[in-house]
């Protein structure tokens, strides 16, 4: 019997040794991790996870922005179990389909609100956000080819955006560290600056004025590339992995004006922002924008099983369907029956508990009130929320907003204090971010806020003790 199938109990140390011997983790320095050993997460319930040492940790990141319905939801496991027994898999390539995929596509079309008369009647399924964005690149190019404008190839994205880790996903993303490894971006993808007020606003500039100026970087880029060569603009409504960058209110309407004026496609990457995260089923509704394609993944199943896809708006669907013939693109697991059955159960659960509505009207505003109270903390330069995502920036000098030197990795110091005190909060540079399960009630928000404040106090004490402050 080998280690993977041996039923004997494995100690934390044994698991860690096997982990570093065999498991290459995503976005991880393997040697560094092997030296300290990975934390082994064993089980979860509600808003908490537990590690193999029995430590309970409040998961303020919903796993990786995905467990919107919280952990331990039996009906999602039941849906998977029933579907696995009935039909665990069949493909949808060769003129075949399956009931969960059909029902889910129809359900998503119903949930996706129409804005400005445009609707989303069609869905293309994948298994992840990255794959979905690859699908977007294929669809956008096909669309313009079919319209007799094959020269429209350039997709504009933003620095510090995250759109996945495949060749196309990482190219669309604006992460310098990812581009540096592997000759990225691939051709015909270019980037503009992100709408990050805290870092890029001019002295004295209002948020509104900055939002307009940031949106106009898109127009400048279109003119630089040549309006007849630009195919699409892709963006997250709120940048997630980049550090919860919430654009000023003036940003999205101006972006919409620009994409309309130049006739280019708009892709809203809602892998994080959809399914209640910002208080709506889809985030484009919140910002009043009219995307042509919407990327989704993660919380469509609350992360219980991999599933992703693209909501294809009328403008693109009509051309692909009416003029396109066969679209030579697809994945083995496009419309996987088990994943789709879990998604249906998850969407039912979210609707029954009105998780988007709770975030919009109750717990979201409450989180906003409690989170912005952190602005009184000596380390906090700014603290803001949007629905159930939130970010704060750690600063060296509150009065001037001066940052800590990068090499001190103050965000990581804070993150360690969070972990040690039973809280998962993510650090992106010196921004500390959260995206808690949408099931959280007000008392749990209070519990989380107490842990965050405690971690900030401990970080402050450590920085003072090390003579940094
Ligand atoms: N787009 C966005 C906005 C994301 O946040 C992510 C993942 N964090 C992706 C795409 C990629 O999704 P996946 O990891 O499922 O491929």
Structure description:
It is a single chain. Strand 1 and strand 2 form a beta hairpin. The longest helix has 24 residues. The protein is globular, with a radius of gyration of 22 Å. Helix 5 packs parallel to helix 14, helix 6 crosses helix 13 and helix 16 runs parallel beside helix 18. The protein is of the alpha/beta class. It has 2 domains: about 140 residues, Aspartate Aminotransferase, domain 1, CATH 3.90.1150.10; about 280 residues, Aspartate Aminotransferase, domain 2, CATH 3.40.640.10. It has 18 helices and 15 strands. The strands form 3 sheets. Strands 4-10-9-8-7-5-6 form a 7-stranded mixed beta sheet, with helices on both faces. Strands 1-2-3-13 form a 4-stranded mixed beta sheet. Helix content is about 40%, strand content about 15%. The structure holds 4'-deoxy-4'-aminopyridoxal-5'-phosphate. The site of 4'-deoxy-4'-aminopyridoxal-5'-phosphate has 15 residues, from helix 6.
Structural class by helix and strand composition: alpha/beta
* CATH second-level architecture of the largest domain: 3-Layer(aba) Sandwich
> Averaged pLDDT, please?
97
Shape: globular
Lateral arrangement of strands in the main beta sheet: 4-10-9-8-7-5-6
- The CATH class of the largest domain, by name, is Alpha Beta
Distance between the termini: 55 Å
Oligomeric status of the shown chains?
A: single chain
Q: Report the CATH superfamily of the largest domain.
A: Type I PLP-dependent aspartate aminotransferase-like (Major domain)
How many individual domains? 2
Task: Report the total helices.
Answer: 18
Q: Determine the CATH topology of the largest domain.
A: Aspartate Aminotransferase, domain 2
Largest beta-sheet characterization:
7 strands, mixed
Give the radius of gyration. 22 Å
Report the strand count. 15
Helix share, percent: 40-55%
Bound molecules: 4'-deoxy-4'-aminopyridoxal-5'-phosphate
DSSP strand content: 15-25%
Contiguous runs where pLDDT drops below 50 for at least 5 residues: none
């Amino acid at each position: 019997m080998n280690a993977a199938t041996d039923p004997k109990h494995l100690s934390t140390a044994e698991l860690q040794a096997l982990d570093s011997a065999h498991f290459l983790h995503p976005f991880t320095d393997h040697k560094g991790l092997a030296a300290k050993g990975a934390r082994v997460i064993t089980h979860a319930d509600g808003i908490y996870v537990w590690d193999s040492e029995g430590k309970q940790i409040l998961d303020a990141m919903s796993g990786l922005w995905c467990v919107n319905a919280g952990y331990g939801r039996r009906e999602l496991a039941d849906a998977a179990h029933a579907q696995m027994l009935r039909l665990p898999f069949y493909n949808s390539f060769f003129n075949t389909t399956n009931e969960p995929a059909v029902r889910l596509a129809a359900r998503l079309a119903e949930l996706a609100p129409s804005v400005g008369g445009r609707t989303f009647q069609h869905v293309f399924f994948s298994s992840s956000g990255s794959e979905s964005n690859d699908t977007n690149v294929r669809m956008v190019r096909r669309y313009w080819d079919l319209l007799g404008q094959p020269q429209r190839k350039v997709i504009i994205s933003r620095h510090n955006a995250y759109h996945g880790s495949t060749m196309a996903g990482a190219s669309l993303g604006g992460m310098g560290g990812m581009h540096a490894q592997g000759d990225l971006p691939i051709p015909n993808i270019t980037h503009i600056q992100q709408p990050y007020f805290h870092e890029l606003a001019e002295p004295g500039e209002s948020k509104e004025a900055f939002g307009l100026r940031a949106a106009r970087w898109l127009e400048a880029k279109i003119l630089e590339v040549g309006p007849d060569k630009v195919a699409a603009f892709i963006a997250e409504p709120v940048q997630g992995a980049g550090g919860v960058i919430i654009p000023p209110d003036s940003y999205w309407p101006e972006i919409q004006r620009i994409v309309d004026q130049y006739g280019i496609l708009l892709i809203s990457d809602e892998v994080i922002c959809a399914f209640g995260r910002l208080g709506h089923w889809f985030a484009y509704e919140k910002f009043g924008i009219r995307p042509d394609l919407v990327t989704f993944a993660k919380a469509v199943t609350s992360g219980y099983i991999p599933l992703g896809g693209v909501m294809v708006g009328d403008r693109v669907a009509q051309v692909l369907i009416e003029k396109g013939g066969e679209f030579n693109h697809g994945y083995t697991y496009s419309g996987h029956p088990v994943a789709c059955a879990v998604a249906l159960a998850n969407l039912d659960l979210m609707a029954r508990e009105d998780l988007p509505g709770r975030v919009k009207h109750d717990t979201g505003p409450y989180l906003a009130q409690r989170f912005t109270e952190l602005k009184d903390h000596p380390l906090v330069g700014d603290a803001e929320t949007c629905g159930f995502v939130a970010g704060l920036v750690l600063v060296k000098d509150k009065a001037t907003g001066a940052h800590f030197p990068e090499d001190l990795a103050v965000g990581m110091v804070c993150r360690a204090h969070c972990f040690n005190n039973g809280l998962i909060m993510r650090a992106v540079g010196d921004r500390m971010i959260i995206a808690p399960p949408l099931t959280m009630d007000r008392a749990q928000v209070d519990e989380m806020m107490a842990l965050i404040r405690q971690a900030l106090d401990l970080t402050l004490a450590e920085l003072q003790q090390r003579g940094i402050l």
